[in-house]
Design goal:
This protein is an alpha/beta fold. The chain contains nine helices and twelve strands. The mean pLDDT is 97.
Length: 256
């Protein structure tokens, strides 16, 4: 299986049809159908390593009241997978993994999945981002998941490589901040060049990185995707652009 990172942007993308969501749909149509999906979403950033273990994971409406009622009514009714949970937990040993029966599919996951697999007919398991770990620790942990690609499981990272909500302005025709454009392009270039070491060490990357990644949770899912890179893989971007001044929609994949 390929692996992919999606810049998910606003929760409104769940129901919108725009150039980004159309690019996601085109991508899904071009890759093999997965047996199951393992999602690493920016919106499950908690202490410890956890896996969603519910048979029917709930749809988590993890956004504020300024969004449309139709978003709060949206349900992504998908099955979980005990088999995938057991397999991922085994691969991550000796890491302590908690099975979480309360968390479900959050908007970092379903805003993308609603376009990739609108029928919700592929089982989904989410893996938390342990907020106590460093980027280097996340990358090393993610490397243990490599066998999943050969087993038909699609590893999907969802976040944004530029995510500064404090400076974001949701206004039509707003021009991106220059630093946001520079950082998006830098991440794209390093990913295409295969320079994972520099991408993991983003905290040493200067003022553009500090403005683009003021908190790590939206960036770290990218590392879970890059960690799956194998010899011979091709890295390609299938969406890009900065919205609201400071939200990058960069999306990329690795495939053999």
């Amino acid at each position: 299986m390929p692996v992919a990172f999606f810049g998910h942007g606003s929760p409104a993308n769940t129901l919108d049809r725009n150039r980004y969501t159309e690019a996601w749909r085109t991508y899904a149509a071009a890759v093999p159908a997965p047996r199951a999906i393992l999602v690493v979403s920016a919106h499950w950033y908690v202490p410890g390593v956890r896996l969603t273990a519910a048979v029917e994971p709930p749809t988590i409406h993890d956004f504020n009241a300024r969004f449309a009622e139709s978003l709060f009514a949206f349900e992504y009714r998908v099955k979980g997978s005990e088999e995938v949970v057991d397999r991922v937990a085994a691969l991550l040993e000796p890491e302590r993994v908690e099975r979480d029966f309360t968390w479900g599919v959050d908007h970092g996951a379903y805003s993308v999945l609603a376009h990739l697999y609108p029928a919700a007919n592929v089982p989904v398991v989410q893996l938390s981002i342990d907020r106590t770990k460093s980027p280097q620790e996340h990358y090393r942990l993610a490397r243990r998941l490599a066998p999943l690609r050969r087993e038909g499981i699609f590893i999907l990272g969802s976040g944004n490589v530029v995510h500064n909500l404090e400076l974001a302005r949701f206004q039509p025709q707003l021009q991106p901040f220059p630093w946001a454009l520079r950082h998006e392009e830098r991440i794209r270039t390093l990913a295409l060049e295969g320079d994972d070491e520099r991408l993991v060490a983003y905290r040493t990357d200067g003022e553009d990185a500090k403005l683009s990644i003021p908190t790590p949770e939206h960036y770290l899912p990218l590392l879970y995707v890059l960690a799956q890179r194998q010899s011979g893989d091709v890295c390609a971007t299938f969406a890009a652009g900065v919205e609201a001044g400071s939200l990058s929609m960069l999306s990329l994949s690795l495939s053999s």
